[in-house]
Design brief:
about 260 residues, about 0% strand, mainly alpha
């Protein structure tokens, strides 16, 4: 049975070059944002929120800087054959870290806006939008983009003939990826519905930022030191595709929960 899924014709290397440029730009903003709480004066100063903002922006800066280099290396994978499969895998793992680091930028902005004492009510609507973005909209967008990246791995296997079609003339791996993303969507939606029952933890954004930084370092080491030593057919294989997407889903749901805790 012929699959409805076409072979991979997406230029991952070109896309990675743009990701590297955007990561570098955001890293510059994060570095500048670290100085925002410096000598901040407010009628009701909240030192804990200023400290949280500095931690979040610092973690975002280091994460985005590392990803800028990682995507730059990925942009050099312009070969054919197995190189494309490795590039598709790296696109998944680096893309998840990039999306989480971008959400951190909004975490930091939310913490900064909460330090404006007497003017805090003026920024109230903006803070509500940021909380909604970091807890619902951002995670949904990240999960959708990661599903598309995982689909590129499946397309690569389809181009090499290493795939079988299942229900609806789509590969079984596509349905598994869709199930993983759907469960994450449901978790994000459930937290939005039960948001009033989620306990408040002022240090939740800082903990999430440190976790994202650790995750970024892990995927950078993975792509730079481990992936080159493993067979390309294993890297672009069935199990690694689903494992990478599942880890992304868990991390995204965790960041969404941290957004509600630190609201």
């Amino acid at each position: 049975m012929d699959c409805r899924l076409s072979s991979l014709d997406f230029d991952i290397a070109a896309s990675a070059g743009w990701y590297s440029a955007i990561a570098g730009l955001l890293a510059g903003f994060a570095l500048l944002s670290i100085l925002l709480p410096l000598d901040h004066e407010a009628a009701d100063p909240d030192e804990s929120q200023s400290g949280t903002a500095v931690v979040v922006f610092t973690c975002a800066f280091v994460s985005l800087l590392a990803l800028g280099f990682a995507f730059a290396v990925l942009a050099g994978r312009t070969g054919d054959g197995d190189v494309i499969g490795v590039a598709a895998h790296e696109q998944v793992v680096y893309g998840s870290a990039f999306g989480l680091a971008a959400i951190l930028m909004l975490f930091g902005l939310h913490a900064v806006l909460r330090t404006y004492g007497a003017n805090r009510t003026v920024f109230g609507p903006a803070q509500r939008v940021i909380v909604l973005t970091t807890s619902v909209l951002g995670p949904v967008v990240l999960l959708a983009l990661q599903f598309g990246s995982a689909l590129d791995v499946t397309r690569f296997r389809a181009s090499s003939g290493d795939i079988d079609c299942g229900f609806g003339r789509l590969p079984t791996s596509v349905w598994i990826d869709l199930l993983i993303v759907s469960i994450a969507f449901a978790a994000v939606g459930l937290m939005w519905i039960l948001r009033e029952r989620i306990p408040h933890r002022d240090n939740a954004p800082a903990i999430a930022a440190k976790a994202v930084l650790a995750y970024t370092v892990a995927v950078t080491v993975w792509g730079s030191m481990v992936v080159p030593l493993l067979p390309s057919d294993v890297i672009a294989g069935f199990w690694f595709e689903h494992l990478a997407l599942a880890i992304t889903a868990i991390a995204t749901v965790g960041v969404a929960a941290s957004a509600w805790m630190g609201r």
